[in-house]
C-alpha cells in the first residue's frame, strides 16, 4: 500500500468507529458539568479581547464596542454570527472577516498586526466574496477549496472561522425562510450539506491522536506517521477538510443517540469540546 492508500484506509476506519465509549462518557460528563451552558448549542461560548488593541483595523464591525475601550470585552459565537451575517448582507466581506478574526485571536497581542497585513492584500474582498458565494451555492468544502492559499497570511485556522460564522448566518436565514414559507437568497441546496466548522491546530491534534490509536488498533503500517501526515498542524487540503466535516457530523449523530442529552443539530459543539480538550485520545 502507498501512503495515500493507508490514509484512505485509516479515514474509512475512523468513519466506522467514530467516538470510542470513553470519549462518549467524557463528553457526556462535560455537558452535564462545565459544558451545561451549551446544552442547546455553542452560541454562548465567548472569548475576551481588548477593543483598544485593534485600533487601526478597518473596517471595524458595527456591532462591536468602540475601540476607545481599553478594558476587556467579551464576544460570543452568537454575536459573531450576527455581526458576520449583517456584514455579508451589506457585502462588507472584510468586515465579516474582522469579526471572526477578532473572536479567534481573543487577547493574543500579535493578532491586530497580522490582520492589518491580511486586509492590505488587494484581492481580499473579492476572494472572501467568492468564498461566500461558493459556501451558499456549493457548500463548505468548495468554499474552503477556494480560500486555500487565496489570500496571503490567511490560513485555514482563521478562514474556517470566517466560513463557520458565515455559514451559521446562512442557517439562520434558511430557518427564517422556512418559518415564513418563502425562499431566501441565501438559502440554497447547500443548506443540506455538512455545515462549515472550525479546524485549527488544537482540533487537528486531537484528530491526529485519535487516528494514531485507531491505526494502531487496526495494525496499520506506520500508523503514527500516517496520522501525522493527514492531521498535520496546518495546511490541510480541501479533501482533509471534507473528511473532518463528515467525521464531526457523524460523531455528533452518534452522541445525539447516546442518551447523554447531546444536541444533534449542533456539530460545532463537538468542535468546541475537542478544542477545549474535553477528550484526550492519547490518555
Shape designation: globular
Low-pLDDT sequence parts:
174-191
Radius of gyration: 19 Å
Strand order of the largest sheet: 1-2
Number of DSSP strands? 2
Instruction: Tell me the series of helices and strands, N- to C-terminal.
Output: HHEEHHHHHHHHHH
User: Count of DSSP helices?
Assistant: 12
Overall average pLDDT: 91
Percent of residues in beta strands: under 5%
- Report the major sheet: 2 strands, antiparallel
Structural class: mainly alpha
Q: What would you note in describing this structure?
A:
The protein is an all-alpha fold and 283 residues long. It is built from twelve helices and two strands; from the N terminus they run ααββαααααααααα.
How would you concisely characterize the structure shown here?
This protein is mainly α.
Question: What are its keywords?
Answer:
283 residues, mainly alpha, 57% helix
Write the layout of secondary structure elements.
Layout: H1 3-17, H2 21-32, E1 46-49, E2 73-76, H3 77-89, H4 93-105, H5 111-119, H6 124-137, H7 140-147, H8 156-180, H9 201-217, H10 223-230, H11 238-256, H12 267-275
Antiparallel strand pairs: 1-2
Amino acid at each position: 500500500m502507498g501512503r495515500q492508500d493507508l490514509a484512505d484506509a485509516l479515514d474509512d476506519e475512523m468513519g466506522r468507529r467514530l467516538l470510542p465509549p470513553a470519549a462518549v462518557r467524557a463528553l457526556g460528563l462535560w455537558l452535564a458539568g462545565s459544558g451545561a451552558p451549551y446544552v442547546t448549542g455553542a452560541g454562548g461560548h465567548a472569548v475576551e479581547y481588548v477593543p483598544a488593541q485593534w485600533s487601526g483595523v478597518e473596517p471595524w464591525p458595527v456591532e462591536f464596542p468602540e475601540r476607545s475601550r481599553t478594558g476587556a470585552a467579551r464576544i460570543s459565537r452568537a454575536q459573531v454570527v450576527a455581526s458576520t451575517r449583517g456584514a455579508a448582507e451589506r457585502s462588507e466581506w472584510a468586515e465579516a472577516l474582522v469579526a471572526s478574526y477578532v473572536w479567534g485571536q481573543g487577547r493574543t497581542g500579535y493578532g491586530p498586526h497580522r490582520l492589518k497585513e491580511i486586509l492590505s492584500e488587494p484581492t481580499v474582498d473579492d476572494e472572501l466574496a467568492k468564498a461566500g458565494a461558493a459556501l451558499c451555492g456549493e457548500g463548505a468544502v468548495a468554499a474552503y477549496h477556494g480560500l486555500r492559499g487565496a489570500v496571503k497570511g490567511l490560513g485555514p485556522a482563521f478562514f474556517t472561522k470566517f466560513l463557520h460564522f458565515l455559514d451559521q448566518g446562512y442557517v439562520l436565514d434558511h430557518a427564517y425562510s422556512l418559518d415564513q414559507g418563502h425562499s431566501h437568497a441565501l438559502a440554497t441546496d447547500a443548506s443540506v450539506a455538512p455545515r462549515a466548522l472550525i479546524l485549527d491546530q488544537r482540533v487537528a491534534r486531537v484528530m491526529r491522536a485519535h487516528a494514531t490509536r485507531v491505526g494502531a488498533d487496526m495494525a496499520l503500517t506506520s500508523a503514527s506517521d500516517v496520522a501525522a501526515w493527514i492531521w498535520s498542524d496546518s495546511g490541510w487540503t480541501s479533501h482533509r477538510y471534507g473528511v473532518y466535516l463528515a467525521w464531526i457530523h457523524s460523531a455528533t449523530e452518534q452522541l445525539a443517540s447516546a442518551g447523554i442529552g447531546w444536541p444533534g443539530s449542533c456539530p460545532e459543539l463537538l468542535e468546541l469540546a475537542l478544542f477545549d480538550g474535553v477528550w484526550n485520545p492519547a490518555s
